[in-house]
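re: that chain from earlier
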Amino acid sequence: MYERACRELNSDQEARWLVEEVASSPWSSALDEVVTKQSGSRFEEMLRRRGEGEPLQYVLGHWSFRALDLMVDDRVLIPRPETEGVVEVALQLLDDIAAPDPIAVDLGTGSGAIALSLAKERRMGEVWATDDSAGALAVAGANLAGVGGWAASRVRLARGSWWDALPDHLRGRVTLAVSNPPYISNGEWAGLDLVVQAWEPLSSLVAGPTGLEDVARVVAGARRWLVPCGGLVVEIAPHQADEAAALAREVGLGAVDVRIDLAGRPRALVARAPRG
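^ sequence. v structure.
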């Protein structure tokens, strides 16, 4: 069975992950000894799904993101290292703001990766996670339950489009807003990896004709919702750096910067609300 797994999967490492998933035990060189009769059918099903091209993360049903192990399926994007870096930028900005009991917002939360990372890695007053997709919020809710404890008690889920999902009493009180919005243009869609096209949610990837439509919506609402000197961090495509920075300046945000990712590419738009 081990030889078959290696033939049908992309790598020995993928076979290792699938076996560990179904066996709930460390890797064994003798696969048939690890995969019991009870778990064997699940292993076969996972092999079938992976063989049909479904992303490994969806087949496993979970994936790591910073300090979290997140449930993921095709209702949400697969967590990526680039977004982990965006969270790091957001945490650094939050530390610079140094507000007591800060209120943070994750706009377009998807799996809840950003919101739950903020709540787990810093002592927050509240973290609001918004999404227009009921399916995405269901996944985020499952991940919220999985985190549990004090961190989870600070997270609130809200359905709606970007800032519109937030209750009015938060207007002007948000310390930090973070978002990984869709930023692919209609024209760029055809050039994406075929696996991404086939499996990941289109609405979480493609923004419109320019690719900046949702970035612009997030940026446009920042001044109304952020506290004076509050921070905004938005994930963008590298080629959008100049245009995204211009959008932030046009709406009156200051300290506008674009931070690079681990590959040295522009990735995170950073801005601050005016002092008041």
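The longest helix spans residues 81-97.
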